[in-house]
Amino acid sequence: MLNADLALTRPFLKWPGGKFRLIPHLHQYFPERTHFIEPFVGAGAVFMNHEAEHFHLNDFNPDLIYCHEMVKKHPKEYIAKAKRYFKDTYNSENRYYQCRKQFNESKDPALRSALFLYLNRHGFNGLCRYNVSGEYNVPFGRYVKPYFSDKEIMFFNEKSKTAKFYQMDFAQFFEKMLKKLPPKDCVFYCDPPYAPLSKTSNFTSYAGNLFGKDQQLILSEYAERAQRLGACVIISNHDTPFTREIYRKAKIIPLEVQRVISCKGDNRKLVRELIAIYE
Length: 279
Fold this sequence. Notes:
The protein is globular and about 55 Å long. The protein has helices at residues 23-27, 45-48, 62-73, 75-83, 93-105, 109-122, 150-159, 170-180, 213-229, 241-246, and strands at 35-38, 54-58, 163-166, 186-190, 204-206, 209-211, 232-238, 251-260, 268-278. By secondary structure, it is an alpha/beta fold. It contains 10 helices and 9 strands. A hairpin with a 7-residue loop joins strand 8 and strand 9. Helix 3 (62-73) packs across helix 4 (75-83) and helix 4 (75-83) packs antiparallel against helix 7.
Protein backbone atom coordinates (compact mmCIF):
# COMPACT_ATOMS: atom_id res chain seq x y z
CA MET A 1 0.00 0.00 0.00
CA LEU A 2 0.98 3.64 -0.49
CA ASN A 3 1.35 5.80 2.59
CA ALA A 4 -0.93 8.68 1.61
CA ASP A 5 0.22 10.82 4.53
CA LEU A 6 3.78 11.11 3.22
CA ALA A 7 5.16 13.03 0.26
CA LEU A 8 6.71 10.81 -2.38
CA THR A 9 10.48 10.42 -2.21
CA ARG A 10 12.63 10.31 -5.32
CA PRO A 11 15.41 7.72 -5.70
CA PHE A 12 19.00 8.80 -5.10
CA LEU A 13 19.85 7.68 -8.66
CA LYS A 14 18.45 9.13 -11.87
CA TRP A 15 16.80 6.37 -13.87
CA PRO A 16 15.26 6.75 -17.35
CA GLY A 17 12.01 4.82 -17.42
CA GLY A 18 11.68 4.97 -13.64
CA LYS A 19 8.14 4.90 -12.28
CA PHE A 20 8.24 7.84 -9.85
CA ARG A 21 5.51 9.81 -11.64
CA LEU A 22 3.29 6.75 -11.97
CA ILE A 23 3.50 5.65 -8.33
CA PRO A 24 0.05 6.96 -7.26
CA HIS A 25 -1.50 5.27 -10.29
CA LEU A 26 0.36 1.99 -9.80
CA HIS A 27 -0.37 1.65 -6.11
CA GLN A 28 -4.09 1.33 -6.58
CA TYR A 29 -3.43 -2.06 -8.21
CA PHE A 30 -1.02 -3.46 -5.58
CA PRO A 31 -2.78 -5.83 -3.18
CA GLU A 32 -1.59 -5.96 0.42
CA ARG A 33 0.75 -8.91 0.63
CA THR A 34 3.59 -9.73 3.05
CA HIS A 35 6.31 -9.86 0.38
CA PHE A 36 6.82 -7.19 -2.28
CA ILE A 37 9.13 -8.43 -5.03
CA GLU A 38 10.80 -6.55 -7.88
CA PRO A 39 12.76 -8.53 -10.51
CA PHE A 40 13.88 -5.23 -12.18
CA VAL A 41 14.31 -2.82 -9.27
CA GLY A 42 16.30 -0.13 -11.10
CA ALA A 43 16.66 2.94 -8.88
CA GLY A 44 13.89 1.69 -6.59
CA ALA A 45 11.27 4.44 -6.91
CA VAL A 46 8.36 2.05 -6.35
CA PHE A 47 10.07 0.27 -3.45
CA MET A 48 10.91 3.57 -1.74
CA ASN A 49 7.26 4.65 -1.77
CA HIS A 50 5.57 1.37 -0.90
CA GLU A 51 4.78 -0.27 2.42
CA ALA A 52 5.27 -4.02 2.95
CA GLU A 53 6.71 -6.25 5.63
CA HIS A 54 9.46 -7.61 3.40
CA PHE A 55 11.03 -6.46 0.14
CA HIS A 56 13.00 -8.66 -2.28
CA LEU A 57 14.75 -6.52 -4.87
CA ASN A 58 16.68 -7.80 -7.86
CA ASP A 59 18.51 -6.43 -10.86
CA PHE A 60 20.86 -7.97 -13.40
CA ASN A 61 23.26 -5.02 -13.15
CA PRO A 62 25.95 -5.78 -10.52
CA ASP A 63 27.06 -2.13 -10.27
CA LEU A 64 23.52 -1.06 -9.43
CA ILE A 65 22.98 -3.76 -6.82
CA TYR A 66 26.33 -3.18 -5.13
CA CYS A 67 25.51 0.52 -4.99
CA HIS A 68 22.20 -0.32 -3.25
CA GLU A 69 24.00 -2.69 -0.88
CA MET A 70 26.55 -0.03 0.05
CA VAL A 71 23.78 2.44 0.85
CA LYS A 72 22.02 -0.18 2.96
CA LYS A 73 25.09 -1.26 4.94
CA HIS A 74 27.39 1.76 5.04
CA PRO A 75 25.37 4.92 4.24
CA LYS A 76 27.59 7.50 5.95
CA GLU A 77 30.78 6.05 4.51
CA TYR A 78 29.13 5.91 1.10
CA ILE A 79 28.04 9.55 1.28
CA ALA A 80 31.53 10.65 2.34
CA LYS A 81 33.16 8.71 -0.50
CA ALA A 82 30.72 9.78 -3.20
CA LYS A 83 30.38 13.44 -2.20
CA ARG A 84 33.95 14.30 -3.12
CA TYR A 85 33.04 13.74 -6.79
CA PHE A 86 30.34 16.42 -6.65
CA LYS A 87 32.78 19.31 -6.23
CA ASP A 88 32.83 21.81 -9.09
CA THR A 89 36.28 20.59 -10.16
CA TYR A 90 34.74 17.26 -11.14
CA ASN A 91 32.02 18.82 -13.29
CA SER A 92 33.98 19.04 -16.51
CA GLU A 93 34.18 16.92 -19.62
CA ASN A 94 37.83 15.97 -19.12
CA ARG A 95 37.33 15.04 -15.46
CA TYR A 96 34.20 13.05 -16.28
CA TYR A 97 35.99 10.89 -18.83
CA GLN A 98 38.90 10.39 -16.43
CA CYS A 99 36.45 9.16 -13.79
CA ARG A 100 34.63 6.98 -16.30
CA LYS A 101 37.97 5.38 -17.26
CA GLN A 102 38.79 4.87 -13.58
CA PHE A 103 35.39 3.25 -13.04
CA ASN A 104 35.86 0.87 -15.97
CA GLU A 105 39.36 -0.14 -14.86
CA SER A 106 38.69 -0.45 -11.12
CA LYS A 107 38.06 -3.78 -9.39
CA ASP A 108 37.26 -2.09 -6.06
CA PRO A 109 33.47 -2.39 -5.52
CA ALA A 110 33.37 0.47 -2.99
CA LEU A 111 35.11 2.86 -5.37
CA ARG A 112 32.97 1.71 -8.28
CA SER A 113 29.78 2.29 -6.29
CA ALA A 114 30.80 5.88 -5.46
CA LEU A 115 31.78 6.55 -9.07
CA PHE A 116 28.54 4.93 -10.22
CA LEU A 117 26.57 7.70 -8.52
CA TYR A 118 28.91 10.36 -9.94
CA LEU A 119 28.56 8.98 -13.49
CA ASN A 120 24.80 8.63 -13.05
CA ARG A 121 24.34 12.28 -12.01
CA HIS A 122 26.92 13.80 -14.38
CA GLY A 123 26.29 11.59 -17.42
CA PHE A 124 23.84 12.24 -20.23
CA ASN A 125 20.18 11.94 -19.12
CA GLY A 126 21.06 9.63 -16.23
CA LEU A 127 21.54 6.76 -18.65
CA CYS A 128 23.15 3.50 -17.55
CA ARG A 129 24.70 1.87 -20.59
CA TYR A 130 27.57 -0.53 -21.28
CA ASN A 131 29.32 -1.51 -24.50
CA VAL A 132 29.83 -5.11 -25.68
CA SER A 133 33.02 -5.29 -23.61
CA GLY A 134 31.11 -4.42 -20.46
CA GLU A 135 32.50 -0.89 -20.21
CA TYR A 136 30.28 1.98 -19.06
CA ASN A 137 30.06 4.30 -22.08
CA VAL A 138 27.53 7.07 -21.28
CA PRO A 139 28.81 10.49 -22.48
CA PHE A 140 29.18 13.61 -20.34
CA GLY A 141 25.88 15.36 -19.60
CA ARG A 142 26.92 19.02 -19.30
CA TYR A 143 24.80 19.92 -16.26
CA VAL A 144 25.43 23.20 -14.41
CA LYS A 145 25.41 21.71 -10.91
CA PRO A 146 24.50 18.04 -10.57
CA TYR A 147 22.47 17.27 -7.46
CA PHE A 148 24.04 15.26 -4.65
CA SER A 149 21.25 13.13 -3.27
CA ASP A 150 22.37 12.65 0.34
CA LYS A 151 18.85 12.98 1.81
CA GLU A 152 17.52 10.40 -0.62
CA ILE A 153 20.45 8.12 0.20
CA MET A 154 19.59 8.21 3.90
CA PHE A 155 15.91 7.59 3.14
CA PHE A 156 16.87 4.61 0.98
CA ASN A 157 19.07 3.32 3.81
CA GLU A 158 16.23 3.46 6.32
CA LYS A 159 13.77 1.88 3.90
CA SER A 160 16.15 -0.93 2.95
CA LYS A 161 16.29 -2.33 6.48
CA THR A 162 13.39 -4.59 5.50
CA ALA A 163 14.84 -5.33 2.04
CA LYS A 164 17.08 -8.01 0.62
CA PHE A 165 18.94 -7.40 -2.62
CA TYR A 166 19.72 -9.95 -5.32
CA GLN A 167 21.77 -9.80 -8.51
CA MET A 168 20.69 -12.37 -11.07
CA ASP A 169 18.74 -12.95 -14.25
CA PHE A 170 15.02 -12.25 -13.78
CA ALA A 171 14.07 -15.86 -14.62
CA GLN A 172 16.45 -17.21 -11.97
CA PHE A 173 15.03 -14.69 -9.54
CA PHE A 174 11.44 -15.78 -10.23
CA GLU A 175 12.46 -19.40 -9.67
CA LYS A 176 14.14 -18.52 -6.40
CA MET A 177 11.22 -16.47 -5.06
CA LEU A 178 8.58 -19.05 -6.03
CA LYS A 179 10.54 -21.76 -4.21
CA LYS A 180 11.51 -19.65 -1.20
CA LEU A 181 8.26 -17.82 -0.40
CA PRO A 182 4.56 -18.74 -0.16
CA PRO A 183 3.21 -17.38 -3.49
CA LYS A 184 -0.12 -16.35 -1.93
CA ASP A 185 1.83 -13.91 0.27
CA CYS A 186 3.65 -12.34 -2.69
CA VAL A 187 3.12 -9.49 -5.12
CA PHE A 188 5.61 -9.18 -7.97
CA TYR A 189 6.00 -5.80 -9.66
CA CYS A 190 7.88 -6.07 -12.96
CA ASP A 191 9.22 -3.04 -14.81
CA PRO A 192 11.30 -4.71 -17.54
CA PRO A 193 13.07 -2.99 -20.43
CA TYR A 194 10.13 -2.01 -22.60
CA ALA A 195 9.20 -3.66 -25.86
CA PRO A 196 9.69 -1.32 -28.85
CA LEU A 197 6.73 0.83 -29.86
CA SER A 198 6.98 -0.13 -33.52
CA LYS A 199 8.30 -2.92 -35.73
CA THR A 200 11.11 -0.66 -36.92
CA SER A 201 12.36 0.06 -33.40
CA ASN A 202 14.91 -2.12 -31.64
CA PHE A 203 14.57 -4.10 -28.45
CA THR A 204 16.37 -2.71 -25.44
CA SER A 205 19.83 -3.50 -24.13
CA TYR A 206 19.60 -4.50 -20.48
CA ALA A 207 22.86 -4.10 -18.51
CA GLY A 208 24.82 -4.91 -21.66
CA ASN A 209 22.53 -7.72 -22.84
CA LEU A 210 19.66 -7.65 -25.30
CA PHE A 211 16.24 -7.91 -23.69
CA GLY A 212 14.36 -9.12 -26.74
CA LYS A 213 11.14 -10.88 -27.70
CA ASP A 214 12.18 -14.15 -26.08
CA GLN A 215 12.84 -12.47 -22.74
CA GLN A 216 9.53 -10.59 -22.90
CA LEU A 217 7.72 -13.85 -23.57
CA ILE A 218 9.54 -15.69 -20.77
CA LEU A 219 8.53 -12.94 -18.33
CA SER A 220 4.87 -13.29 -19.29
CA GLU A 221 5.12 -17.06 -18.81
CA TYR A 222 6.56 -16.61 -15.33
CA ALA A 223 3.73 -14.19 -14.54
CA GLU A 224 1.16 -16.81 -15.57
CA ARG A 225 2.92 -19.48 -13.53
CA ALA A 226 3.15 -17.28 -10.44
CA GLN A 227 -0.54 -16.41 -10.81
CA ARG A 228 -1.49 -20.09 -10.94
CA LEU A 229 0.43 -20.62 -7.69
CA GLY A 230 -1.48 -17.79 -5.99
CA ALA A 231 0.83 -14.79 -6.40
CA CYS A 232 -0.14 -11.43 -7.84
CA VAL A 233 2.04 -10.19 -10.71
CA ILE A 234 1.88 -6.68 -12.18
CA ILE A 235 3.87 -5.72 -15.27
CA SER A 236 4.45 -2.32 -16.87
CA ASN A 237 5.26 -2.08 -20.57
CA HIS A 238 4.47 -0.29 -23.81
CA ASP A 239 0.97 -0.83 -25.15
CA THR A 240 1.57 -2.57 -28.49
CA PRO A 241 0.01 -5.49 -30.39
CA PHE A 242 2.97 -7.62 -29.25
CA THR A 243 2.50 -6.88 -25.53
CA ARG A 244 -1.27 -7.23 -25.82
CA GLU A 245 -0.69 -10.69 -27.25
CA ILE A 246 1.81 -11.94 -24.66
CA TYR A 247 -0.27 -10.50 -21.79
CA ARG A 248 -3.57 -11.80 -23.17
CA LYS A 249 -4.24 -13.79 -19.96
CA ALA A 250 -3.89 -10.69 -17.78
CA LYS A 251 -6.22 -7.81 -17.04
CA ILE A 252 -4.95 -4.88 -19.12
CA ILE A 253 -5.06 -1.29 -17.86
CA PRO A 254 -4.14 1.17 -20.66
CA LEU A 255 -2.65 4.57 -19.88
CA GLU A 256 -0.83 7.43 -21.55
CA VAL A 257 2.44 8.71 -20.12
CA GLN A 258 4.27 11.91 -21.00
CA ARG A 259 7.83 11.11 -21.90
CA VAL A 260 10.91 12.76 -23.36
CA ILE A 261 11.38 11.23 -26.80
CA SER A 262 14.64 12.85 -27.90
CA CYS A 263 17.81 14.35 -26.47
CA LYS A 264 15.96 17.65 -26.07
CA GLY A 265 14.30 17.76 -22.68
CA ASP A 266 11.41 19.92 -23.91
CA ASN A 267 10.48 17.46 -26.67
CA ARG A 268 7.80 15.39 -24.94
CA LYS A 269 4.80 13.49 -26.14
CA LEU A 270 2.20 11.12 -24.76
CA VAL A 271 3.21 7.47 -25.12
CA ARG A 272 0.79 4.58 -24.78
CA GLU A 273 1.68 2.19 -21.96
CA LEU A 274 -0.16 -0.57 -20.16
CA ILE A 275 -0.30 -2.31 -16.82
CA ALA A 276 -0.86 -6.07 -17.02
CA ILE A 277 -2.36 -7.53 -13.85
CA TYR A 278 -2.20 -11.25 -13.09
CA GLU A 279 -4.23 -11.95 -9.96
